[in-house]
Write a structure and sequence with these properties.
mainly alpha, MFS_trans_sf, single chain, transmembrane, transport
């Protein structure tokens, strides 16, 4: 998308691709709600505290399988269309070195005749550098550190909050204790709570980014998002006992929803957008992949770390099989600190608003440095 879009609306187009994740989250919640409601109605069961063994009916084993299998449907739907989608002209020309195919693909997209200029591709190729070179380190080393570390730090906080909403909601008493429900009904209650948070905070945040990213810029949105995530995490954590009181639960949920809003109207969107813009065409997907892989490493740290850290400091109150942790309050403080460091590493990431991909990656400079001034504009101006 970054290589097909024009520089004025490129941010909105890439962010819109990412924002579809929000509809996927809602769809997943709806599938979970429908499936669990149907099984809960069809196969009534006592609560866990009434009869622990009978609270999980044998048919409950189908619930998670059905929900999980629904995820194959969108994957299958996109597979065929992606196979038919041509590679971008930049990739075909600069990486695959196929000028004729690049010209043909661009002619189909722009509906104009484009002449293949193979000799220009050869001249440009002579100035290219690889990922593990001094030229890359000098031009884009700090950029890659910035995009990778920001994505890593974001996903620690984002996935911690996302995956353990159930524990946080239970801790403040918004959803009943697990022992007062049967297994299938618990799936329904948790799905309802998570879908509500997604509807009120997550999805609007995505589309605020789409609407404003090409007006206020990627840097400002990412810095602002990390800042407000830090503020709201501390605002939830420091007076934590205040939020656990029944009268203050709605306030907690509002604040908690705002952390998701500013994650998506913030770094969760921009960490996806920026690596797709600022690196050279021949290394763009590689650097985006490195940044994304750092994010998934952060997700693993967040998922397993929060699972242990959020356990009560009282050994008698921990989940079965887990050692005492630092508690939800201190875990939220740690996440707030992580978001603060995300603000600092955002300073390494350049602003890409309103600039062509060649300006951002310095590919035009490479062409000029080869001694042929005319080659500075030889890449396809999309």
């Amino acid at each position: 998308m970054s290589e097909y879009a024009n520089k004025k609306t490129r941010g909105a187009f890439i962010a819109a691709v990412f924002a579809m994740q929000g509809f996927g989250i809602l769809a997943g919640g709806i599938v979970s709600l429908i499936t669990s409601a149907a099984f809960d109605h069809a196969f009534p069961a006592p609560t866990y505290e009434q009869n622990a063994a009978a609270s999980t009916v044998p048919q409950a084993d189908y619930v998670w399988r059905i929900i999980l299998m629904f995820g194959a449907i969108p994957a299958a739907m996109t597979y065929y269309s992606r196979m038919k989608m041509p590679e971008t002209a930049r990739y075909t020309a600069l990486v695959a070195k196929n000028a004729k195919q690049a010209a043909s693909d661009m002619a189909k997209v722009l509906q104009v005749e484009i002449e293949a200029e193979e000799e220009k591709i050869e001249e440009i190729s002579e100035t290219q550098f690889g990922l593990f070179t001094k030229q890359f380190a000098r031009r884009h080393g700090l950029h890659l550190v910035g995009t990778a570390v920001c994505w890593f730090l974001l996903d620690i906080a984002y996935y911690s909050s996302n995956l353990f909403q159930k524990d946080i909601f239970s801790a403040i008493g918004w959803i009943p204790p697990a022992k007062t429900m049967n297994a299938v009904h618990e799936v329904y209650v948790v799905s309802r709570a998570q879908t509500l948070i997604a509807l009120c905070g997550t999805v609007p945040g995505y589309w605020f980014t789409v609407a404003l990213i090409d007006h206020i810029g990627r840097f400002a949105i990412q810095l602002m998002g990390f800042f407000f995530m830090t503020v709201f995490m501390f605002a939830l954590a420091i007076p934590y006992h205040h939020w656990t009181l029944k009268a203050n639960r709605i306030g907690f949920l509002v604040m908690y929803s705002l952390t998701f809003f500013f994650a998506n109207f913030g770094p969760n969107a921009t960490t996806f957008v920026v690596p797709a813009e600022i690196f050279p065409a021949r290394l763009r997907s590689t650097c985006h992949g490195i940044s994304a892989a750092a994010g998934k490493a952060g997700a693993m740290v967040g998922a397993f770390g929060f699972l242990y850290a959020a356990q009560s400091t009282d050994p008698a109150k921990t989940d079965a099989g887990y050692p005492p942790g630092i508690g939800v309050k201190n875990s939220l403080i740690v996440l707030g600190c992580i978001n603060f460091f995300g603000m600092l590493f955002t300073l390494l990431v350049p602003e890409s608003k309103g600039k062509s991909l060649e300006e951002l990656s310095g590919e035009n400079e490479e062409d000029s440095s080869s001694g042929n001034e005319a080659s500075a504009n030889r890449t396809v101006p999309i």
